[in-house]
Design a protein that fits this description.
It is a single chain. The protein has 193 residues and is an all-alpha fold. 68% of the residues lie in helices and 0% in strands. Helix 3 packs antiparallel against helix 4, helix 4 packs antiparallel against helix 5 and helix 5 packs across helix 6.
Length: 193
């Protein structure tokens, strides 16, 4: 008889943990969406300030990620690397944040095609993580999708580069996507197919 009570209590505990986990994930996605809305609502010169207003805590990962994007686009590689590192530290599911951390550190002040070469090589060194496979990362990357008219011929890695890349990246990606020249190995990872 006592074992039935123990089984029922165990089931209640498991159900409570599952419900708590689901509710926490839902709340985190809502906070991520709020940060993305603040990002999109701000003018490009005010985005850093908009991300500073996002509350501190473990759910600040998306704010760090977007701050990294802002600094990367401004060519501030060291600051961008730090922000992407903080984003990945706050939410391990943002694999693109880890990728961009190391890419920014390798690139330093190199933009355009050189940045893309470092991105592709770092992605290979990291054993080609499936970017955007997790819900949190997909939400962030899709939130940046309206930032430009990206070519359909880009791979997932190429789309990440298009959405977050520093100056000169989009021009280099257009050439890679067009496929009019023989592509080096690093560039093939940026093109779909």
């Amino acid at each position: 008889m006592w074992w039935k009570a123990l089984v029922i209590m165990g089931m209640l505990v498991c159900g409570g943990v599952s419900l708590g986990t689901a509710l926490a994930a839902r709340a985190r996605r809502a906070r991520y969406r709020a940060a993305l809305q603040a990002w999109r609502a701000a003018t490009p010169d005010r985005r850093s300030t908009a991300m500073a207003s996002v509350p501190f805590g473990p759910d600040r990962a998306v704010a760090w990620f977007l701050l990294g994007v802002d600094w990367l686009r401004a060519g501030r590689m060291v600051d961008a690397a730090r922000a992407f590192g903080m984003a990945h530290h706050a939410d391990w599911a943002l694999e693109s944040a880890a990728l961009l951390t190391y890419t920014c550190l390798k690139s330093r002040d190199e933009f355009g095609e050189t940045f893309l070469r470092h991105l592709s090589n770092t992605w290979s060194e990291m054993r080609q993580p499936a970017l955007g496979a997790r819900a949190a990362e997909q939400l962030v990357l899709e939130g940046l999708a309206d930032e430009g008219d990206e070519p359909a011929q880009l791979s997932t890695l190429g789309r990440v580069a298009w959405r977050v890349g520093p100056p000169g990246t989009r021009e280099a990606l257009k050439r890679i996507a067009a496929g009019t020249v023989e592509l080096e190995d690093w560039a093939k990872a940026l093109r779909a197919g």
